[in-house]
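Q: Here's a chain of 151 amino acids. Please give me its 3D structure as tokens.
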Amino acid sequence: MTIVTHLGKPDDELHDLDGEMLAIVQGHHGYVSPSWYAPGATRAPTWNFSVAHLYGTPEMLSEEENLAALTRLVAHFEREVEEPMLLEREWATPFARGTVGIRLRVERFTCKRKLSQDKDPVSRRNVVERLREPGPYQHPALADEVERELD
């Protein structure tokens, strides 16, 4: 697996890009209230999450590779905009020079998931239901992850 990304200058000088780099990919996450647990369950508030820590040695992209990566990135996000503003070489090249392109070939990784696995089935089902309810802690995607852990 390879990640292509960039930093703004002078961030490249603030971060040591000569050694191993850690990229954190955060999945779904959210608050879980102890009031959602079944009677008798341990009642401590917590945070459910999934995350991956990716390690590798960064390689700097050439100016041309960096411009191509930035162009693809902007095109990806602009496709959802009513009037997309795509990068055009004549004005994007100076803009791209203000960034440092990085290719990170993932050499090792760890994944972590905390999805109420330590709770009883009733509490876990309650967590799924509460995450699906409208309100400040609604998070259907996280509910789906917790539910997959139930199956």
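Q: Can you summarize the key feature?
A: The domain at 2-133 is CATH 2.30.110.10 (Pnp Oxidase; Chain A).
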